[in-house]
Amino acid sequence: MAGETMLKFVGTGQAYPAKRPADLRNEDFREIADRFAMPEAEEQASRCSQCGVPYCSVHCPLHNHIPDWLRLTAEGRLREAYELSNATSTMPEICGRICPQDRLCEGNCVIEFTGHGAVTIGSVEKYITDTAWENGWVEPLAPGPDRGQSVGIIGSGPAGLTAAEYLRVLGYSVTVYDRHDRAGGLLIYGIPGFKLEKYVVERRVKRLADGGVKFELGFDVGRDATLDELRANHDALLIATGVYKPRAIKAPGVDSKGVVDALDYLIASNRKSFGDAVPAFDDGSLNAEGKHVVVVGGGDTAMDCVRTAVRQGAASVKCLYRRDRANMPGSQREVANAEEEGVEFVWLSAPEAFKGEAAGVTGVRAARMRLGAPDASGRRAPEPDPGNEVDLPADLVIKALGFDPEDLPRLFGAAELGVTRWGTVRVDGRSMMTSLDGVFAAGDIVRGASLVVWAVRDGRDVADHMHRYLKARAAAGAAAMAAAAV
């Protein structure tokens, strides 16, 4: 049967779920495309070549069983496809929406190399799990037998939520601490709804809460409890805070009113979508409506900002990036979506100064750049091209140059917590444990700003390491009690 249903990539073309017209999607924060219907999902899944070496799986950080669940989808065995997809990922429908498949699984699809166009893996993955939710195939989280040990997790982003799920299934009492008033981290407050509607995250969080994972929200470690106090309350801790400190721009006028950080801007927009009171949005400080907006940066966060500004009714939106299109770090699909929605990209340009008056920023002086030799990342390094400056009008400038770690030893009141020279938490590569016994770390706070799928992978891995540690601790405690009783 598999031979009849697969290998159709020669006669069946690549297709994605249809996107809504740009002028319509610019009016709201809904996802820009609906999911596949069943026939289209089966048809696209049938294009998989079932190759002997599945590079799609190799290049997926989770090593998802992609060819296998594509085959099951093509055969109409959707529940089995879901169960296989769910076996390696705690949030496949989220990864299906926001992973840069063009750089990972789809970008390494064998039939992509032959010129037939990759299997649309992400769209099928989203379809499988959304259908599973609708049909009740996503089972409640079932905790294992109570082990009498507790785990504290600092941060409710993808790494923290993934670790919480695995550890709760193993029978541990799990408490997740987060500084925000909603769980989900950047999945809730950093990523706009047009890429990831919030009910998708909320139902995952609810499933964890219904399974006994406790959430302490609005809890700021260092203010509400020190790291040592949390260590005293739990048998093991996981630091999964992510990285939130915005990278700075060194240029005159950068402190002008109207020059804002990307995360502040995105959080304000997402909070407004929830119906929260957001004074900085209402007074226009973090609202692009009617303004000439310049976003500085070329990553996925910059794409989130430019596309959010369009939906807020900006008069114009420009993205300023120091390299060319081929050398930008963000997803090319996101760039294409932004261009469709009216964003103008100013390539090979970097801010030289921010012009302003007492009322706020009025423009950006940008230096033109040219590309030199490749740097350590393999991309050609930008260098100034003198005499080609350009002035861009701007009422709102959004800095989206990426994120660095916060000073956790200071924030947590834990000077002995080891960090690298980049400020990320230092861990033992074999155990994922920090310099503090029983304190582990995972996700972006260890690897630096990265992808959600890598955070899920790290959460899965660290749960395994913590389980081993806790079992050894329980065994040592039992042995000590036995010795004392003799």
From TrEMBL:
* Matching InterPro entries: DPD_II (IPR028261), FAD/NAD-bd_sf (IPR036188), FAD/NAD-binding_dom (IPR023753), GltD-like (IPR006006), Helical_ferredxn (IPR009051)
The leader peptide range reads none
Q: Which of UniProt's keywords are assigned here?
A: 4Fe-4S, Iron, Iron-sulfur, Metal-binding, Oxidoreductase
Under SUPFAM superfamilies, the record lists: alpha-helical ferredoxin, Nucleotide-binding domain
Report the protein name in the record.
Answer: NAD(P)-dependent oxidoreductase
Q: Which residues belong to any copy of the FAD/NAD(P)-binding domain?
A: 151-459
- Where would I find the Dihydroprymidine dehydrogenase domain in this sequence? 26-136
- Which PANTHER family has this protein been placed in? GLUTAMATE SYNTHASE [NADPH] SMALL CHAIN (PTHR42783), GLUTAMATE SYNTHASE [NADPH] SMALL CHAIN-RELATED (PTHR42783:SF3)
